[in-house]
């Protein structure tokens, strides 16, 4: 909820839409996201830079106005860095406060969090 007040949030996952939506609904977080991109709906999903490029185009964003937070160096971080998108690798260990602080430091004009 706190991130939603500071950023537009977008989910991008290689997972199947039906399964991923159930996870989001079970955790009661789907209302906080502006849009969802799932691998079964996009033939060129992660780590293809076209997948991330499409998200930028859909929101008419410059890469420097987005931040990708992902758990995979290969699927999330490296392709976004190649496009000039700010990145933060999340390993599942850091507390929300640590992640929030890092995101706010990366923000610098970024409005979207994918």
Q: How would you summarize the topology of this molecule?
A:
Layout: H1 2-6, E1 8-13, H2 17-26, E2 35-38, H3 49-58, E3 66-70, H4 73-83, E4 86-89, H5 96-107, E5 112-113
Parallel strand pairs: 1-2, 1-5, 3-4, 3-5
Could you say which overall geometry the principal axes of the C-alpha atoms support?
globular
**Element string (H = helix, E = strand):** HEHEHEHEHE
Cα(first) to Cα(last) distance is: 15 Å
Numbering strands along the chain, what is their spatial order in the largest sheet?
2-1-5-3-4
Mean pLDDT score: 89
Question: What count of helical segments does DSSP give?
Answer: 5
Question: Would you tell me the structural class of the helices and strands?
Answer: alpha/beta
Strand content: 15-25%
For the largest beta-sheet, the strand count, sense and barrel status come to: 5 strands, parallel
Helix content: 40-55%
Number of strand segments: 5
Rg value: 13 Å
Low-confidence stretches: none
Overview of the molecule:
The chain has helices spanning 2-6, 17-26, 49-58, 73-83, 96-107; strands at residues 8-13, 35-38, 66-70, 86-89, 112-113. The protein has a five-stranded parallel beta sheet with strand order 2-1-5-3-4, with helices on both faces. 42% of the residues lie in helices and 18% in strands. The mean pLDDT is 89. With 114 residues, the chain is α/β, with parallel strands linked by helices. The longest helix has 12 residues, at 96-107.
Features:
alpha/beta, 18% strand, 5-stranded parallel β-sheet, 114 residues, 42% helix, 5 strands, globular
Provide a quick synopsis of the model.
The protein is α/β, with parallel strands linked by helices and 114 residues long. The protein is 42% helix and 18% strand.
